[in-house]
Amino acid sequence: MKKINKILIVLILFFAANGSVFADEQDDMYAKMDSLLSVISVYEFGMDRSALSEFSAIVKDELNRNRNRNKFEDMLTDFLLSNAKLDGKQFMCEQLSLAASERAVPVLLILLKNPETSDMARYALHRIPGVSSDATLKDAVEHNKNDEIIIGSINSLGRRKDTNAVNIIAEYLSSPNQSIAAASATSLGMIGNEEAAEIISEQRPNYDGMVKDLLTDSYLKCADNMLANGNKSEAEKIYNDVLQGEKNDALRQAAFNGLLESKNNSAELIVSTLAGDDLSLIDIAAIKIRILEKKGEIVKVADLLSVVDTDIKIKILAAFEDMQNPVTHKYVVDAVNDDNEFVSSAALKVLSKIGTKDDVELFVSIAVNGQGISKEAAQTNLDLLNADGVDYEIVRLLNSDNDELKPELIRTVSARKIISAYDVVYAAAAGENKALKAEAYKSLGAIAQPEQLQDLLTLLENAESEGERKRVESAIVAVIGKIPDKNERADQLIEYLSKTEDEDVMRSMLRILSASGSPNAYKVLQSALNGDDEEAQKIVIQSLSNWPGNEPINDLMNFAKSTSNDTYKILALRTYITLVKRSYTLTDDEKIKNYKEALSQSEADNEKKMIISGISNVGNLESLKLAVELLDNENIKKEAFMAVMQISEDIAEDHPDEVKNVLNKVLEKTDNEGARSYIKEVLGSIK
Amino acid sequence: MKKSKQTRRQFLKRSAGVTAGIVGIPYLVPSSVFGRNGIPPSDKITIGCIGYGMMGSGNTDSFLNEPDAKVVAMCDLDDEYLSLGKNAIDEHYGNTDCAAYHDYRELFLRKDIDVMSIAVPDHWHAILSIAAARAGKDIYGEKPLSHSLKEGRAICNAVKRYGRIWQTGSWQRSLPHFRYACEIVRNGRVGKIHRVEVGLPSGHTDFGGTAGQEAPMDPPKNLDYDLWLGPAPYAPYAPARVRMNWRWHLDYAGGQLLDWIGHHCDIAHWGLDLDHTGPVEIEGYGEYPETGLWNTAGKYRVDTKYADGLHMTISGGHRDLCNGTMGAKFIGDDGWVHVNRGGIDASNKDLLKEKFGPNDIHLFESPGHHRNFLDCVKSRKQTLTPCEVAHRSATPGHLGQIAMLLERKIKFNPETEEIIGDATASRMLSRSYRSPWHL
Fold first, then answer.
1. Inter-residue contact A538 to A568 (CB < 8 Å)
2. B381 and A CB contact within 8 Å
3. Which residues 615-634 of chain A have a CB within 8 Å of chain B?
4. Buried (b) or exposed (e) across B92-113, using 16+ Cβ within 10 A?
5. Can you give A309-357 as a three-state secondary structure string?
6. What are phi and psi of B30, to 5 degrees?
7. Cβ separation A155–B438 shorter than 8 A
């Protein structure tokens, strides 16, 4: 028992002490608010708003606490009743829009009825949940003569979806002020319940022009809500009412749209509309084709493809493309043969999604013999045709005697990556037909596997021109890329290189090794770079620009420093700069160090410009300093200036003082008016 | 690492080339079903352009260059822009036929116009878009779709109700390398994705050249300032408030976060097939300026979680994310792929050479963003970035803004689009309009 008493005493003391701390903290907050409120009371737009920011922070903190907020709220509403300036009151209404409860509503009503403060009161009332806000807004509508207040309050009631406000709002439909009538018509739709629909149904015939259009829009919103709530028959009545009686095309379209959505069977209506002459409804019917599911319904639409105008054919085919229903197949194939190339190409698109292996020949024949966009569509969509047996059919056709189709077939073998076509494609590459060879080389890269590398090396040996050799190189690079282990990629090639005596093949191998990314390959390239075969050096230097890593950077710099061949030096520097610029793994500091080294070796302006371009992509103070130093060189001054500005903009937020300092110095030395105004613009934007 | 902040000038400069460290890939732009080789059989599509500042001029130019489109009207409440726009159109066609409108309501009365191209400040998006749909126009609208989440849903509803075709200015989806990156992800080449880092710009770029010009003054005669304010709370004119720098004030826009959410978050959603859903948990922290007229977050970070456990981080000014730059970085069990306007990169470079076969997922290959829109106006097919997609792309931005402003985690139901168990945060899903404006 004694123990329990002790615990109780401790707990009481704890809460007493902390309760006092909490109360102190709250009192401090009120004191701070008081002091800020006195500043805000004289606030006007354009003045320092730091007190407002501080006050917002307090409001935000308070919103993140779970405690009684009556006094807090009262302080905000008291401010609204004070002699504070309007701009401060507007700010306070924004705070109340988040912080106020219904407790604040009576004060907001006072502001709502004053034309000067009505809008700002609604900023808060719009967001305060509960019937008090609704009642206040209705009060303002009913007991006010100021049009702007009435309009605003009606709009707010609409947006709050106050179902009890329907009758009050409806009374203002007949207002001589068109803006009030418009607000009333719109708000009825925002509320959008059955009561609003009834009123609109009665009142709509009494109006015309803008108010009638807005009322009809609201009527349709009511119908949409009915439809969403399962009241199809009532919704349908409204849609039909508007469709039959309305002259405004847009409203008729919306009604038709809703009607098609609401009907259990829309097929007849869609078909008759597509075949009819009511142009304003055809677009809606075309969109709604997509809701059809039954075979018979879809066929009825498909039948139209043989009778309707080109524009409508394209709309129907667009729907069929989305639907991907095999029922349309026969009709789509017919449309592929349409005289109009837009129709034909639209049909080919559909066919790529619903076609079968039996359609391959149709695609290929248009891809070979077609014209313009049909030809292009046939090629693109043959590559995408995804059905059982399509690849088999392509290989079968490739093995046939029809040479005319073969280039296109080999092209699609590549796009579709049909590995089983390897033998026939390889035969074409090794054959005599030049048109076929070119396609076959490209295709081999896509379909050849690492175990077929030796075949490709044989093709390389037998290549009859530099062009052919380059194409085989590309194929080999693609094939070795399929080997996951980087060293394994290169080892077979290195062995081959050690045995070949054909100089052309050796050069090719160096280029291929440069693309491998293999550490073993790099050793070979390094050795060639440091060797005495100048032609090999040149190939290595140029090829290394494709190297996927930082390894060559130091070697290239050493080469540039040591070579006596000026051309090679320039080439090495260019590759060096390319690799530094592209590197993801070098730090900014390392990059700057590399650029400085490159600058020390560069004599030509072109290389310096390349370096500047790299420097400008490094956003730090060191890169800025380096770019500024380069401004002194007349030949590259323009590029250096752009780099200075780019870096300045990049880092100004983190280093405002340093950037200002640098730019002011540059400004002092700059005569060019355009440059000066650019500097001033950037300086002006630095906070 | 390089900072992610990027000004418009830099963007223009860099978008022409390749950003350091990102591999540019060659690509072919496919021809349109209708456009490249001739004008289709039907009449030309007539277009009215609203807003010529910021994105408006670029969109107008794009439509002018489409052979089956005819820009017949320009509308801007700033007479200087109006004149610039009309002159550009007239010069292109070699006549003086382009009609000039100060007030969009007059433009919408024209029955002979098929399409509205809308490029105006965000606080005007919903009112104009819904009015355009109600007028039976197809719409090319700028991102972000809306200025609040509820406005976004209202736009989607109106576009659906009136059966309109909508394309959002999220044109990155029309660039082949963005599509390719998304195909890599969709086809599982980097494994199951568990995290996406979306990198956006930070800070406040002085687009209008009016930084610091914050003292209230009379608006210039060329600008109908009251109409410009429209539904936004009253504030006196100051140069820093308007002309492209409106982006940096929460009454008119959502800062860098909402400006760019419709680009890189849009790509993240595309890559992950999240076009019809949204996050379930959102936390954020933003650095909002405490002084000056501009009040949008300069540096920010929004962490979101999706229903399947995926984490998406959206940030500006955080160099430790998204390779220290912009774009969308998809991180999966088997590696990562990162795409931005400079190009595409991946943990496994071989991925960047892959060609997808017929059994792989192929995303829509756009003939060009404006071209795709015009094609869809004719075919009545959904565009590459329809309204719903734009709404979902912007959703993490709207919710992130709320989480940052309240500094607390919020939970969201993407089905009902309601914030769960947080009445205060829920209030921020919509905002009141100045009288007499309404949706």
1. yes
2. yes
3. 617-619
4. eeeeeebebbeebeebbeeeeb
5. CHHHHHHHHHHHHHHCCHHHHHHHHHHHCCCCHHHHHHHHHHHHHHCCH
6. -70, 155
7. yes
Chain A nearest CA to B215, separation (Å)? 5
pLDDT category at A153 given cuts 50, 70, 90 is: very high
Chain A interface includes B244 (CB < 8 A): no
Angle separating helix axes A178-191 and A194-203, nearest 10 degrees: 140
CA B280/CA B377 separation, integer angstroms: 34
Q: How far is A180 from chain B (nearest CA, A)?
A: 8
A8: contact with B, CB 8 A cutoff = no
To the nearest whole angstrom, how far is the Cα of A624 from the nearest Cα of chain B? 13
pLDDT higher than threshold 50 for residue B17? no
Q: What angle do CA A480, A484, A486 make, to 5 degrees?
A: 70
pLDDT at A24: 82
Tokens of A518: 């293999």
In chain B, the residue whose alpha carbon lies closest to the alpha carbon of A618 is B2
- pTM of the entire structure? 0.86
Sequence-ordered strand ranges (E) for B80-192: 99-101, 115-118, 138-141, 166-168
Instruction: Report pLDDT for B10.
Output: 38
Residues of B in contact with A182 (CB under 8 A): 436, 438
Q: Is A42 helix (H, G, I), strand (E, B) or coil?
A: coil
Contact A320, B7 (CB under 8 A): no
As to burial, measured by CB atoms within 10 angstroms (0-12 exposed, 13-18 middle, 19+ buried), residue A501 is exposed
Distances (CA, A) of B81 to A276, B46, B125, B213: 44, 21, 18, 20
Q: Which two tokens stand for residue A332?
A: 């789509």
Q: Confirm or reject contact between A158 and chain B (CB < 8 A).
A: yes
**Which token pair is B149?**
């989440």
Residue B379, chain A, CB below 8 Å: the answer is yes
**Signed CA dihedral, A631, A637, A639, A644: sign only:** positive
Q: Tell me the one-letter amino acid at B10.
A: Q
Q: Give the count of beta carbons closer than 10 Å to the beta carbon of residue B129.
A: 30
- Determine the pLDDT at residue A462: 92
Distance CA(A497)–CA(B146), nearest Å, equals 63
Does the pLDDT at position B21 exceed 60?
A: no
